[in-house]
Amino acid sequence: MAGPLSGITIVDVTTNISGPSLTMILADLGAEIIKIERPVTGDDSRGMGPFWEGEGVYFLHINRNKKSVVIDLKKDDGRKIVYDLVEKADVFVENFRYKKAEKMGLGYEKLKEINPAIVYCSLSAYGQDGPLRERSGYDAIAQADSGIIGINGAEGSEIARVPVSVLDQGSAMWGAIGIISALFHKEKTGEGQLVTTSLYETGVFWVGYHMLSWLATGKEPKKNGAGHTAFAPYGAFYASDAPVMIGISNNSLFSRLCKVLGKAEWITDTRYETNPKRIENRENLRVAIENILQSKTADEWVKLLAEAGVPSSKVKKISEVVGDEQAEAIKMWERVAHSNIEGFKLPRLPFELSMSPAEIKQAPPKLGENSKDILKKIGYDEAKIEELLNEKIVQTIEDKAQTR
């Protein structure tokens, strides 16, 4: 079944995590992604370990459903190939440092001359304006700059970033939404446009209610570990074998929790009868809850809490999530044929469309796997392709055993 973006062609010159995550979303939705990679090494994420049968897991995660074309963009003939691709494309995506695309001859104004209806997306570290716009930046750097690391963890604990690429993949989401919105506008008006987003903008947006709290109270938000500033009891509480995450946001849920714990008297206890009182006495409440939880395992408590309608979960290890019954039930994993990884599977996009579903149709490409096919598609004959190969302007894989 064709995805909702079937028929859309996207030229992708991104690398690392943010840009490739963006084009992965669009690829799963049916767009044709022509991934332009540098000669020899390709996308930086190909070299990011650990490795699975020689393949970097970062690259494997976010480059499915794409076609790899190796082009030397430092050479005029290499840029000419990109111009030829852009002429027939709908979207161009880059995540270079500020103005690098312009210096390479791949800026919006230049590509708009070639294709006035092009939707051009620039995903950067800090955005297109301001004193930091020229800085390069990784996810952790933007986490620090946007305040996320400053509120992450518990008071007195070691400084820690959120250990997933929350801003790389968050900015990818905003970029994808921007591109789809621009394509919808283009369908109605025929106009292309420039779409911009950044890791920093994403981080500032994510911490929005913490900033509003500071504006409202003048008080710097505190680190809460697994807890929550506005509610108690809320956080991770240790059972006999593992922590249990419990979330109580109102008196009704607190009453249910008290009954499960065998502490109905807490419901009318003046220390705990309202959420503000529970926040004031959160430490006493935490110790009391953990003393009770020590009598059973995390799984036993989660079963009892769930039966009572109390939001809770065991704090799971990654190894537990991989084979989780719930993940299997909602089909979060899709098996994909891979040339050298047996039983290869990838997590699907976290939403479903009933009539035009996203789909993982093919594993991430080998470096240069599609170079010849794409060049032929845009009108290059065999002689010209051989010339480009000999001059090392383009690169392809010759070992057919590696292709899928």
Automatic annotation (TrEMBL):
It holds the Pfam family CoA_transf_3. The keyword Magnesium does not apply. Keywords: Transferase. It comes from the Bacteria. Gene3D superfamilies: Crotonobetainyl-coa:carnitine coa-transferase, domain 1, formyl-coa transferase, domain 3. InterPro entries: CoA-transferase_III_domain, CoA-Trfase_fam_III, CoA-Trfase_III_dom3_sf, CoA-Trfase_III_dom_1_sf. The keyword Transferase applies. One of its GO terms (molecular function) is CoA-transferase activity. This is Formyl-CoA transferase/CoA:oxalate CoA-transferase. It comes from Cytobacillus firmus.
